[in-house]
Amino acid sequence: MKWFDYPIKKIIPEDKNYPDNLKEIKNYPKSLYYRGNLAPEILAKSLAVVGTRRITRYGKMAVEKLIPDLVANQITIISGFMYGVDTEAHQKCLEYQGKTIAVLGGGLNVIYPPENEKLYGQILTAGGIIFSEYEPEFKPQLWTFPLRNRIVAGLSTLGILVIEAGEKSGSLITARFGREQGKKVFSVPGPITSSVSAGTNQLIQNHQAKMVLSAGDILGRKIETLALFSTQALSPTEKKIFRALETEPLTVDELARLIGQDVIETGKTLSFMSLKGLISDSTGKYYLNS
Questions:
Q1: Domain 8-219 carries which CATH code?
Q2: DSSP state letter for 234
């Protein structure tokens, strides 16, 4: 079934299935269009996940660390379908068989960004929802994206999680909407040298958001982390590499020196670990995938 085969439905606040959370916010949508399965349970436990369009490897690692545990606790992930953190959050949620909701800045028949057409279909196939307050053929405008953010925040029950945001990021608008709506705001701290972490760090510094280091910080309890792999399943050399990469990303030469092994043999081990999906490399350095 193609995405355009899913019927577009319209609801108004008087309808039984209009999201109750939205009725509680200022300037709530007087009508909503949607595709997908608007069942009460999909909105019962939900978290808005937002962030920069210029996501870094660090941001992707933060999404990879947090989303699996949230999905395992039946949390629906809500985001804005844009480049960067939005797309990463939607995709990672689907990868772990979770439910996700996208709120568009344009009409439901105008896929923006166009690169996300496949993602649009995957959200629907997995039983998620795609919302818009605009007519189906309405093209997104610069002003519609900040306005959309009040819906992203309004739909959430647990609050808003910000992963990487610059000082003037639209994600901070979503966080502000969340605070105005009485929602909790969560923020992932980032490197002080990164411009796309300036906003998230300031939210924490100014006591406008709770610092998040794990999904348990959002859920309010300690949870078992869904690690991609256990060190018990690794060979002795792989365990050494794992422990080294837990601290920071490293090059093959740096790893070889740390573990006291030949560079060629270290490279072979890294290749095997990459094939198993345990690590990945970028700009010459290796990173743990979880």
A1: 3.40.50.450
A2: S
